[in-house]
Amino acid sequence: MLRETPAPVPELQFTDGEGKPQTLADFRGKVALLNIWATWCLPCRKEMPTLDRLQATLGGSDFEVVALSIDRGGAEVVKKFYTDIGIQHLSIHIDSSGKAGFALATAGLPTTLLIDRQGQELGRLIGPAEWDAPDMVAFLKSIIARKEGHLSPPHQKDQPL
Question: What's the predicted TM-score (pTM) here?
Answer without folding.
Answer: 0.90
